[in-house]
């Protein structure tokens, strides 16, 4: 059995504040310690915020694309993000583009996508985790998670759980240089009856590497964690 994407982690300068921002923006619940945003239906993945005082020096390798059912819903999401402490940013988008680019209170970029986007139809509030990455890393994550490819064209790839929900996408070349640790990372959880060493060996065979402090690196060098679920 393949591991489950249990959470997307954020290295944050103020974890409780950032957790409140994202829980408020997505209308998700907060964990008891206030550092994890939990989806209300219990499905999909959580957002976990861990403390790091490392400054943000570059655009993230991954960002969220939030969906909008209507133009009014897009405006409401943008307004709510600004009220919660987000801000508009310029990453080179043009006025003709329909999405709105924002940053959360810690500077993490995200987009509020316009209504009518067919690629993100029926995906949920987080329509996509849009990543900077190669075609090979898209293939890696498809095999690692057991999620089928739903897009594979011109070296751009996307995968989605068989149960639906958020898509994970990789934009293909050119891939930006990764000089330091990513602020966003994937947390994988294994069922308690799965052999952890065997699963580690499988991921390494697929192209993963062991990193420092128990962290793993995918073929593009992006960090992820792997742990077993409690019995």
TrEMBL record:
Alphabetical list of InterPro entries matching this protein: Glyas_Bleomycin-R_OHBP_Dase (IPR029068), Glyoxalase_6 (IPR041581), VOC_core (IPR037523)
Protein origin, superkingdom: Bacteria
PANTHER family to which the protein is assigned, alphabetical: CONSERVED PROTEIN, HYPOTHETICAL FUSION PROTEIN
Pfam families: Glyoxalase_6
Name under which the protein is recorded: VOC family protein
Every VOC domain range: 4-115
Record SUPFAM superfamilies: Glyoxalase/Bleomycin resistance protein/Dihydroxybiphenyl dioxygenase (SSF54593)
Taxonomic placement: Bacteria, Bacillati, Actinomycetota, Actinomycetes, Kitasatosporales
